[in-house]
User: What shape does this take?
Amino acid sequence: MNKLTLSFMIMVFFTVTCFATVPNMYQFPTKEQHQRFEKLTFELRCVVCQNQNLAESEAPIAGDLRHEISNMIKQGQTNKQIIQYLVHRYGDFILYNPPVVQKTWLLWFGPFVLLLFGFVLLLARIIYQRKHLTNKNLDVKQQQRAQHLLEDN
Amino acid sequence: MSKRVKLIIFLLPLIIFLAIGLFFWRGLSMNPRLLPSALLNKPVPAFQLPSLLHPQQKLSDKLFQGHVSLVNVWATWCAVCADEYPILVGIAYQNVVPIYGLDYKDNRAHALAWIKKYGNPFKAIGFDKTGSVAINWGVYGTPETFVIDKHGVIRYKQVGPITNKIWQNKLLPLVEKLKRES
Assistant: This one.
């Protein structure tokens, strides 16, 4: 084969190999630990790349925290302990779900309360309108007039 | 239902809308990346690090007892830290508060060369090669500066570089206030 074909093939070869998937850097002795690691890193926010979770983010701090979490899992710490460790240092923001405590009641229940409020208003309006229902029926003269107007296009 | 009550009920959605709009308006000028420190008003996490300049020397959280301190997290690979550095040197020159450096995931040789070239505003520098101490402090980006009171309690965290404006308007008054505290 000529030079051009050869160089093209080499190019393609390297492109294909460079498409290797990101290797799983963290090995765990048990499958359960691995699953816990995946669950945790998927459910914790990267505080730098704030729209990504710790599993996806390529920020250095995310890598450090993944490393830290994997160590803690291997040491035998519970999920609760690991989450507590992170929240202690980075605050509630690192959790995607804010905790349900007094100061977040407005956040969690606010929308439902507003919805309820809207329904109450709606109900009040309906009841009010029913109470003040006027007689919409027309008397004879008005009926004739209506007939006249409708026929007369 | 009186006319007055009717009026109030009529205006209620508008009032609620304006109130919520006010919050959103305020939110526009806030930066979500500037997270307040989770360690606010908590004692400095215990640590032990080798000194950058004197590797045999060990630095620990006992450094902060008895006086107000600033702890600046920096690294030579951090471009913004380069911008902030002259400000730190200026603050050190004013001699109002000691600045301790936390060299974050850095190369020792680079850091030493940096200090030699640009000066040393730090009273002591802890060399945190792996970044594990920084994690304990809730560091997520450089530069960050912690203000620590006389009892070793973290009172404020400045995320991002200190500018002259921030020093004059925010940090210096805070440092003076903490100095006056018992």
User: Anything to note?
Assistant: The helical segments of chain B are 3-28, 79-94, 108-118, 132-136, 164-180.
